[in-house]
Design brief:
Layout: H1 9-21, E1 39-45, E2 68-71, E3 77-80, E4 83-86, E5 90-91, E6 101-109, E7 118-130, E8 137-138, E9 144-145
Antiparallel strand pairs: 1-2, 1-6, 3-4, 4-9, 5-8, 6-7
């Protein structure tokens, strides 16, 4: 196989369900680790964190901001046709101080804070301008597509 070959559509959907909903892939992968993740954490970024980055790379910083935990199940994430979306809007804390900035990327990782590995990341469209009093939110129409 050459570099860049794609995954099969059914497997892409299975992989999304494994990551976001903790649904086993029969005979291949399960969620039986000693302490499997029960939440995934959404972070906001003011620039591309990159494939080699972590969740602190270009992470927005303002008073009131914290990563948002989303339960790793069908109650937290919808997976349909190789696309993942949050079941409910992902609302971050309102900016009450600090520099703020423009959110251009979001990432999903495994820790509430610190240099957590990024599982997936992508652009936020439209960008979110975070200034005093703004409560950034990613709506349920936010989609991550596996392809």
């Amino acid at each position: 196989m050459a570099t860049g070959d794609a995954l099969g559509n059914t497997f892409e959907n299975d992989l999304a369900k494994l990551i976001f909903q903790a649904v086993a892939i029969a005979n291949l992968a399960d969620n039986a680790a000693t302490s499997p993740y029960t939440n995934l954490y959404v972070a906001l970024h003011t620039a591309d964190p990159g494939e080699a980055g972590d969740q602190t790379t270009s992470e927005i910083a303002y008073t009131g901001y914290a990563r948002v935990a989303v339960v790793r199940s069908a109650a937290g994430w919808t997976v349909t046709a190789n696309s993942v979306s949050p079941v409910a809007a992902v609302a971050f804390g309102a900016m009450t101080g600090g520099a703020g900035g423009t959110v251009t990327y979001a990432s999903i990782g495994v820790a509430a804070s610190g240099a957590s590995k990024i599982l997936v990341y992508g652009t936020v469209t439209p960008n979110i301008s975070v200034v005093s009093g703004v409560t950034p939110s990613l709506p349920t129409t936010t989609a991550i597509t596996f392809n």
